[in-house]
Amino acid sequence: MDAQIIADIRRFNRRYTNTLGVLNSHVLDSGYSFAEARVVVEIGMSQPCIANMLVGSLNIDRSYMSRIINRLVKLQILSRQPSNEDQRVSLLHLTEKGQQLYNEINDKSDEQIIRLFRALPEQELIEMHTSMREIEQKLDQLERMDDDTI
After folding, report:
1. Strand 78-82 vs strand 90-94: parallel, antiparallel, or unpaired?
2. What is the average per-residue pLDDT within 58-71?
3. For a tag on the chain, would you pick the N or C end, based on fewer CB atoms within 10 A?
4. What distance in Å separates the CA atoms of residue 120 and residue 116, rounded to the nearest whole number?
């Protein structure tokens, strides 16, 4: 792969990461790390869920995921419930406090995107959206290709 292409992709990743504030210690002024917020959002979107699903969808190490889940349970953001099908598996749910956090993160994420792109003319916003969807589709193709080689 061309060195300039690699450099450009890395620059884009750094820029967008900085723009969204992903590396701030507390994402969207929520008091939670990016990884913790992502776990809350994933569970909120697919309740109930199990830790293994989160490990796969977020590509987070199992032991790190376990620490995140334990912390969020301790903070009463998540609750665990044994699965009826397999008692070794815990189903993760958002508590009322967790649902409020999920809603707050969603609202702030929407507001962040609106602020970021509001100055763009409609046609440029449509072009940017189309480009993002194309990038997402290409990344999906790469992931499928990776899965096929395993």
Report:
1. antiparallel
2. 94
3. C
4. 9
